[in-house]
UniProtKB/TrEMBL annotation:
Residues 1-16 form the signal peptide. Residues 694-863 form the Alpha-1,6-glucosidases pullulanase-type C-terminal domain. This is Glycosyl hydrolase family 13 catalytic domain-containing protein. InterPro entries: GH, Glyco_hydro_13_N, Glyco_hydro_b, Ig-like_fold, Ig_E-set, Pullul_strch, Pullul_strch_C, Pullulanase_N2. It comes from Arabis nemorensis. CDD domains: AmyAc_Pullulanase_LD-like (cd11341), E_set_Pullulanase (cd02860).
């Protein structure tokens, strides 16, 4: 029924190789055939509305049953409405994805497949009129050494070429009607299932990833040597950009800086830093996009560079650095990489040589090296949009092969751009399949351990669940990897054309409940820091001085600020309980409420998770300002850098000691600054610098680039000008040591990493709650099973009880808690041995249950079982 309804709604006539509809006396000319549609009674069938909810109110028509639909889709098509006199009233083009899914959905081989008999090529292109493959001997060849036509069977074009062509390059030549130009185009495209590329990205490298020549020593046994992972709840994540990691690391040779091989240099400053994090307990390294993306040339010789010695002596608020960076930012070697061209090929600019197999081998060496130092590898994947479209753009691939199918379009036929540009349509079967196949490629062929999905809410929930299931079914014995340990998470934002399930049930925060797929918790971020990335930069929050240390921003009357602060505390406490919908706590009004009953300003529930692994807790990421920078903006200008460093650590501690999955942006543990740049995706190495020698945090290297920051320059300039804002090396090193202590504390007890919602509800409690609570402080206890708690098991052999107190106040916090008296609580041994002399001043009185905590301090008390 789906085929019948969608086609009948769209088709009246076909036109071959014409620029548009040519009007004649009856309103249209130049067509080869004309089909009369029959009106259907009633509304669209349920299955059609489920797949295409945005056309639920459309009227159905029917194509005559004796008409051959399969050939029809290869033509230009139009729908025309005539009046009783035969005059054209309206005319329009049509969208075919529903038809293509019903007629041509395909689960067989795609891409290049290697057998002893040769290499078979398979391309799904049901709307193409002809397809050939152009074979090139080398990547620089302008003319193909052979052109082989492909044969079509039900929309899939295929051929077999000689096995001797392995190591050559190829392109598909596709003759296809393209709706953007309204004519049949000859398109030259890379293989959507490409596994290698030429150095300039213009040709697909015919490569067999199973070749022993592409495998580092021990590669096939890597699954047996993966870092141990007891449970998904044990995961902690560190987000890092490949180029940031080593671009400025002088302990790495110039030839390896900014690339994959930098992670293999055993004694480099960067690798030593990662080893420290791993030794303290960190489990996963999240790499920003490493697939083939646009806007950075893979050939390093084509990059423009800047003599940074010209910038070194400039004033900290100078506009010159950003001006010079902006001049070359589209031609240098830097970009975050959220510009997908081909999803299944490692990015060539990070390889020592982008041509041939180097990017494949070096990527594998990177994964292997990171696993050896105890870190699992997460890839940042971007399936929600593509960098280019149309029949001729060099970075366009999918839209050349099946135009109008892979990209989501609005009701007027234009490409949706709510993600950035060229939104993809995972509700279409072959888009869904391509995403799943690509994920399996990275897991099986590169042995990665997780995926972070950019703008995951623009992907359908069904795609995410099927991908999780497919990966989870991989086994070491048959596939060489254990898919059950691969973790999926992403940005579950709900906006654009997919909002409120506008294109089907999407992978947004609330829809993912029960799937075990994680999504970022923006609630705990915004409550902790204040405001949101879209609000005023001076809006204060729980740790940045709201009510207790104003920064001069107009937050409203004192009563309003009190409510804002107490509400923020509720949101944070729910976040610390893994943002569980059914977690019950006492709110600021003294009421017992579930997490789902606590609402944000727009009446959206704060909590959305049903299990702890569905929540990613964070306060900073690559987007927006770094943690140190946002604290420097939101806190009063007169406070000291020592205080800002303590606030930085306080924010990290609230994430590190929460239930759920903690997530940290690279450099937050060393006070990383981008000179207050709020969007450094294209700000070059200068503003994105990471210094693992700990000599500088990159504060005050000039006004951040004009584009996204100019409106805030009046706030930024006086802060950059003030020398007291800049941390010294001693601040950086101390903050790092305290961060390592946080990881050690988290991994000192399974009570910080509870596996189930039931366990969190049974064991985690918040005190200092209700209308009489002291503002700016959170008191959390975690209790293990013992004789006093029936039906609660013992999971920690060392500690029976833990109390964590977060004091964000600018003054000492004293709290009397009768329910916590007469316990044998002592300062956590990690904090006893730390270099933080302030935390050691924390006091617990067992007879009264009174706690005294220094200003801006996180203190952990533990009760040992052997007491």
């Amino acid at each position: 029924m789906l085929l019948e309804i969608v086609i009948s709604f769209l088709i009246v006539c076909t036109i071959q190789e014409r620029v548009g509809l040519l009007k004649s006396e009856d309103g249209i000319d130049g067509y080869d055939s004309r089909i009369k549609l029959e009106a259907e009674s009633g509304s669209l069938p349920t299955d059609v509305i489920e797949k295409f909810p945005h056309i639920r109110n459309y009227k159905p028509f029917k194509v005559p049953s004796d008409f051959d639909i399969r050939d029809l889709v290869k033509s230009q098509l139009a729908v025309v409405c005539f009046d009783a006199e035969g005059r054209m009233i309206q005319g329009t083009g049509l969208q075919l994805p529903g038809v293509l899914d019903e007629l041509f959905s395909y689960d067989g081989p795609l891409g290049a497949h290697f057998t002893p008999e040769g290499v078979s090529l398979h391309l799904w292109a049901p709307t193409a009129q002809a397809v050939s493959v152009c074979i090139y001997k080398n990547p620089l060849a302008e003319s193909p050494m052979e052109i082989c036509p492909l044969n079509e069977v039900n929309g899939v074009w295929s051929t077999t070429v000689a096995s001797s062509w392995e190591g050559c390059y190829y392109l598909y030549k596709v003759s296809v009607y393209h709706p953007s130009t309204l004519k049949v185009e000859t398109c030259y495209a890379n293989d959507p299932y490409a596994r290698g590329l030429s150095g300039d990205g213009s040709k697909t490298f015919l490569v067999n990833l199973n070749s022993d020549d592409l495998k580092p020593e021990g590669w096939d046994k890597l699954a047996d040597k993966k870092p141990c992972l007891r449970s998904v709840s044990d995961i902690s994540i560190y987000e890092l950009h490949v180029r940031d990691f080593s671009a400025h690391d002088e302990t790495v040779g110039p030839e390896n800086r900014g690339g994959y091989l930098a992670f293999t240099i055993k004694d480099s400053a960067g690798v030593n830093h990662l080893q420290k994090l791993s030794d303290a307990g960190l489990t996963h390294l999240h790499l920003l996009p490493t697939f083939q993306f646009g806007d950075v040339d893979d050939e390093k010789d084509n990059w423009k560079s800047l003599d940074t010695s010209l910038l070194e002596g400039l004033p900290p608020d100078s506009a010159e650095a950003q001006a010079r960076i902006t001049e070359i930012q589209n031609d240098d070697g830097y970009n975050w990489g959220y510009n997908p061209v081909l999803w299944g090929v490692p990015k060539g600019s990070y390889a020592s040589d982008p041509t041939g197999p180097h990017r494949i081998i070096e990527f594998r060496k990177m994964v292997q090296a990171l696993n050896r130092i105890g870190l699992n590898v997460v890839l940042d994947v971007v399936y929600n949009h593509l960098h280019a479209s149309g029949p001729h753009d060099k970075d366009s691939v999918l839209d050349k092969i099946v135009p109008g199918y892979y990209l989501r379009r609005n009701n007027d036929g234009f490409i949706e751009n709510s993600t950035c540009v060229n939104n993809t349509a995972s509700e279409h079967y072959m888009v869904d399949r391509l995403i799943r196949d690509d994920l399996l490629n990275w897991v099986v062929n590169y042995k990665v351990d997780g995926f972070r999905f950019d703008l995951m809410g623009h992907i359908m929930k069904a795609t995410m669940v099927k991908a999780k299931d497919a990966i989870g079914n991989l086994r070491k014995e048959s596939d060489g990897v254990d898919g059950s340990r691969v973790y999926l998470y992403g940005e579950g934002w709900n906006f654009g054309e997919v909002a409120q399930n506008g294109r089907g049930i999407n992978a947004s925060q609330f829809n993912l409940s029960g799937t075990g797929i994680g999504s970022f918790n923006d609630r705990i971020r915004d409550a902790t820091l204040g405001g949101s990335p879209f609000g005023h930069p001076l809006q204060q929050g729980f740790i940045t001085g709201l009510l207790l240390q104003p920064n001069g921003h107009a937050h409203g009357p004192e009563a309003t600020q009190e409510l804002m602060l107490s509400t923020a505390k509720d949101h944070i406490q729910i976040g610390m309980a893994a943002n569980l919908m059914d977690y019950v706590l006492t709110n600021h009004e003294g009421k017992e409420v579930k997490g789902s009953e606590v609402l944000m300003h727009d009446a959206t529930p704060v909590a959305y998770a049903s299990q702890p692994t569905e929540t990613i807790s964070y306060v900073s990421a690559h987007d927006n300002e770094t943690l140190f920078d946002i604290i420097s903006l939101k806190t009063p200008m007169e406070i000291s850098v020592d205080e800002r460093c303590r606030i930085n650590h306080l924010a990290s501690s609230m994430i590190a000691l929460s239930q759920g999955i903690p997530f940290f942006h690279a450099g937050d543990e060393i006070l990383r600054s981008k000179s207050l740049d709020r969007d450094s995706y294209n700000s070059g190495d200068w503003f994105n610098r990471l210094d693992f020698s700990y000599n500088s945090n990159n504060w005050g290297v000039g006004l951040p680039p004009k584009g996204k920051n100019e409106h805030s320059w009046p706030l930024i300039k006086p802060r950059l000008q003030d020398p007291t804002f800049k941390p010294q090396r001693s601040h950086i090193v101390a903050t790092l040591h305290k961060f390592l202590d946080l990881l050690r504390i988290r991994y000192s007890s399974p009570l910080f990493r509870l596996d189930t919602a039931k366990a969190i509800q049974e064991r985690v409690r918040f005190h200092n709650t209700g209308p009489s609570s002291i503002p700016g402080a959170i008191v959390m206890s975690i209790e293990d099973g013992h004789k006093g708690i029936p039906n609660v098991s013992q999971i920690d052999p060392i500690y029976s009880f833990i109390v964590v107190i977060f004091n964000s106040r600018p003054s000492e916090f004293s709290f009397l808690c009768p329910v916590l008296k007469h316990r044998n609580l002592e300062l956590h041994p990690v904090q006893v041995m730390s270099g933080d002399e302030i935390v050691k001043k924390s006091v617990y009185d067992t007879f009264s249950g009174n706690f005294t905590i220094p200003a801006r301090t996180t203190t952990v008390f533990v009760e040992s079982r052997n007491v």
